[in-house]
Amino acid sequence: MFELHFLGTSAAAPSVYRGLTAQLLIVNEYRFLIDCGEGTQRQILQSGLGFKRLNRILLTHSHLDHILGLGGLVSTLTRWENLDRIDIWGGKSTLYRVNSLLFNVVMLGQRPPIPIELHTIEPGLILDDKNFTVTAFPVKHQGVENYGYLFQEKSRRPFLNDKAEMLGVPFGPERAKLVAGERITLKDGRVVTPDEVLGETIPGVKYVHVGDCGFTGNLLEVAENADCLVIEATYLNEERELARQFGHLTATDGAQLAKEAGVKTLILTHISRRSRESDILNEAQAIFPNTFVARDFDHFLIHRDKPVEKVKRQ
Hints:
By secondary structure, the protein is α/β, with parallel strands linked by helices. It has helices at residues 40-47, 64-67, 70-80, 92-106, 161-167, 173-179, 194-197, 220-223, 240-246, 251-261, 277-285; strands spanning 2-8, 22-27, 30-34, 56-58, 86-90, 116-120, 124-128, 132-138, 147-153, 184-185, 191-192, 206-209, 228-232, 266-269, 291-293, 299-302, 309-311. The strands form three sheets. Strands 6-5-4-3-2-1-16-17 form an eight-stranded mixed β-sheet. The chain has a seven-stranded mixed β-sheet with strand order 7-8-9-12-13-14-15, covered by helices on one side.
């Protein structure tokens, strides 16, 4: 299960009800901040999520509404939080701006109290944990080096205790070896293989995150069968010419991608102040019914075996 929190859902400028782009994804003990628009640290505080273990930041591209909040956030994290290091991933042009912001403005003339590592990414695997992977993929927006992120929980085969007991497999390292795919030899000389005690493969949760985007033709494969797709909806279809001009999508574009890719749940974000939420939702649901339009502080649980669950606010 993945846990997704929306901290800011506005397009290029904030509104009274929407802050600038930022999302927090919780995967096991990891917490990933995806983009960091101006005011993100206040949104984190207001959400009640706090700064604990918030040391992994993924950036989609270099536009200021997606990175400007890093100055204040990193200043707070390095001064007041018990972190060993901060890791920030992004394209080369994105990290060029981030480097200037952090080291030529926020920490000018100072040595960071903890290591701040800037990781230049290219399409491909950027993190491989025992339970999940994070992969970066190219996105077409204004300029170059725009990225989306695929979070993929690794598939697993459940251990069948009843079968193991019938075969006389003892508790302990023997069972761990079978789970790891190794065959074992029992004391009486019988050999037990993993296939005898493991069930059918259960695929893991698949979450796809797309930031600003102006073209979806290259996203069909990466979004295929995703449990949840988050993508922008800066414009309505009646404004599609403006969307193309500025490298953005309409609600129709996102919904059409979700439908063609066999996505289970679509969540639209990056909402313009010009648009009414109900208009965006109606346009998208006419094509892809299982659509949400995200609001600041919305909280979703992303499962593999059941629909995405929107958690009610307390």
